[in-house]
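To assess whether the prediction recovers the assembly geometry, we first specified each molecular entity separately, as shown.
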Amino acid sequence: MKEFKVLMVDDEEEFVRTLDERVKMRNLDSNVALSGEEALEFLEKEAPDVMLLDLKMPGMDGMEVLRRAREAYPGVQVVMLTGHGSDQDEAEARRLGVFDYLRKPIPIEKLMKVLKAAYEKKVQESMVAATFAEAGEFGTAQEIMDKNKKR
Amino acid sequence: MKLRQSISQIFSGLAEVPDQENAPIRYNIVRRNMTVLMLLITLVPLTLMTVINYYEYRSVLRDEIVTPQKVLVNKAKHSIELFLANRLATVNFIASAYTFEELADEANLNRIFRVLKREFEGFVDLGLIDSAGLQVSYAGPYKLQGKDYSEQTWFEHVRVNGTYISDVFKGYRRFPHLALAVQHLPENGKSWIVRATINTAKLDELIASMGLDHESDAFLVNKEGILQTNSKYYGQALEQCPCVPSVSYEPTVVEKTDPKGRAIILTYAYFPSTNFIFMLIKPQAQVMKAWYTLKADLFIVFLISVAVIVVVVLRLTKTMFQRMKESDDKRALALREMEHNHKLSSIGRLAAGVAHEINNPLAVINEKAGLMKDLIEFTPDFPDKERFLGPVGTIIGSVDRCRAITHRLLGFARRMDVEIQVLDVNDVIRETIGFLEKEALYRNIKLNLKFARELPRIESDRGQLQQVFLNILNNALQAMDDGGTVSVATFERDEQSIGVTIQDTGHGMSDETLKHIFEPFFTTKSSGKGTGLGLSITYGLVKKLGGDVDVQSKPGKGTRFTVYLPVKQQESQGS
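The predicted structure of the complete assembly is given in tokenized form:
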């Protein structure tokens, strides 16, 4: 049984496939999307815990994917991993609620650490949401998660 | 034409910005030209004015000096002429009023002579001479009866002209006198001559009445140059005087040197009817006194003006050129700084672009090598495990190094957020030194801290300041062999800024190195040991905080960094 499900989005196939293989070796359920559109399709069908997202991609770029994902699938933690990216990009991404903003290249150990931390956060968030949803005092789980996001 | 050329040269020289190498020489040439030009345009008119004034004043003053002399001479000449004419008229009256017989009678003549002496001063004697030239009768102190004058020139003269005034002579009489003779021609044809002599005392009196001062001299001289009256300086009457001027019946002024060597002004006039010349002599020194004073004043004023102009012009050009040089220097400095900043920022942008582009392939290498490592490690009993792990580890290590470089590059280009707070720079330095104390201790390097006690707290970013000091201190430590000294001092530069100096006793830098020290990738460390970014990041940080960095270095002696930081952040600076 894999620990949790990860979606890696990057147009650089050599990079993302290799990374995918390495992450799989480290016992995660890793999946690959080679474009923004592909990533959204995947999100629609399956529910990954963490999404690793590149910024600069042909077609829909990472920032757009991030925006839509946060809207439609707030439960998915997003980690940016990019070779480009200015301060403005980082600030914008953080404003949209990424878990972390990483720069390529990154040692696998560090990446693993971040992915795990992101997963843990996701678990916590859904637990809190579930608790409040049971109590029913603060509206639906969705509403509470929105509140959390704002915080 | 030539002047115009050189002037336009001077001005074009002024307009040019001297290039750095020739600047001092160029400045000196331009300054010299300017000084000469200014001196010329001030001194030439001044000199011209002075010279013109000199001649104008001289002619005016000369007129003023000369005119009274002429008037005086004219007056004296007139009174002497009047005197002589008067005496001649008297003699003429006697010759006409009496008959020959009456005059031949000695008693009668004596009576006339007595009246004459009483009424008119200066008559010495009176005599009647017949047409043959024999003295018929005589009244006076001498025994002259029967004397024959027919051979004498004056007799001929009076026979021809009717009247005669002689030069002054002594004759029988032992004192200077002159003779007046008048021929009377009655209708019956037998003519006679009345001759009288008068002494020259009256002439002396007339001259004395001119009221001359003791240095002036006035006298009569005849056309042969024999003195007719006594002169103060040129001898007694009847002595030869060597000064006979050219003929002029109007009063004339000449400047000359007399036989005694005195510079004199001679005013003279010829008598039209007699043989006399009236002369008035004044020493130039006295007459021209006013002129000499004026001349001296003029000269002094001229000299003082020249001195003042020269001093002012020199001072003026000096200050002017200093100002000019200063502003040129400032401009050059500003240009250099701008160029430098521009260079840094464009290099920064380029570097960031390169870093971005390299990051992606680097990531691929990283992952591929990582995968290889994973495969080796995850596969149990992989053959020659160690031999593969080594190179793969090196690849990953090299990627790490590249990553460090690209990330620093991005950091260099990135506009980091500035978090301004009020802080004590001494504290910040103390904290920073805390990071390095161990290394210093280990390498036996002395840290010499000299903090200003009352250093104003400044508005700045703590983290970035730490980065700045850390970079410079690191550089200092790396520049030294074990056992040197690093001195850190803080001071208040002025009301708006403070300064921090960090001085090491390390290897120092050449001027060439110093020029490039803040450029990214410029490093003197062996390849692989330094990125060459530390100081350029430092520079960028200090500039961003509104400060400035100054470096001084001498090879072999060490390097001194001075960081200036503003006490207050300006609005535009910071975030």
